[in-house]
Amino acid sequence: MAEKLLFTGKTHNTGGRNGGTRSSDGQLDLRLTQPHPAAENLFGAAWSACFIGAIELAAVQRKIRLAAGPEVDAEIDLNVDDGSYFLRARLNVSLPDVDRELAQELIEAAHDICPYSKATRGNIDVAVNLV
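RESULT FIELD:
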């Protein structure tokens, strides 16, 4: 199967007191006066959105109809150890009205599907929790 580009996200970011970020399509336009926690919040929001799509794809692949939409609460920690910065993440996933065993299967499949999960695998500590 040949590679196919599905989407390119484009943002412009500025720093300083009047800093911010804006996407080229105008859907994202935020004032970011401090780089942190903005970076961690934006990363968590992006990863959560992608993870929800991956859960929905995993359900479709298994011919499962989700009665309610998945919910993901992302927690992205910025840490420092001996002058070296690193991230740690937790994705707390809720799948209302889905049997717990099936929900866990969907979450594990989503973690294999989601490009953000793939990008972080082996690079940062990640916990994916069914809540």
